Amino acid sequence: MIGNESPEGSSYGPKYSTLTVRMMAMPLENKKGYKTNWNYHLAAKKGTSTVPSWWSSTKELTLSDADADKYRWIREPGEIPEGWKIIKKKTKPGVECWQLPIYELTENSKHSSSKSAGWAVAQKSGKISKPKNGDFNITSKLGGNWLCEGGTVQYDGKNWIASCSYAHAPKGWDRDLYDED
Hints:
Layout: E1 11-27, E2 41-45, H1 65-68, E3 71-74, E4 84-88, E5 97-111, H2 114-122, H3 138-142, E6 145-155, E7 160-169
Antiparallel strand pairs: 1-5, 2-3, 2-4, 5-7, 6-7
């Protein structure tokens, strides 16, 4: 993506952007479509062998009062209370997390002074902002918005380079918590 072609005052404007995609481990319970039986065994009081109809579809650990007398969700067999047994094993044993792609964008601009470059980073930091060079079509495909998480300023021997780092949130950064640029 191309930034401003000519200088505006003492700032040259964004010249280029880079996109980094990394993976972040998220709790299995946060995955869309999560089911409790993925990472919990179902235990029942001895004498109870009927698998309840909700076992294959529930997303909650909390059981109704009637079911709590007969059933319990447990993570590991060592948690089984005396007088109970496992009647259904977890369906995804050993899985406790899933990988979520995290999109990070860095936008760089050239400035003739350190003051101008510093202000370019400072005025956006901590704010919901649209990267000036675009966002590689991320928000149009995934929704959400970007938060400027700060940046750096460095001298390249000729210009001061301001680099602003943005983090994407698919559901959007909370406008009650962050101002907009």
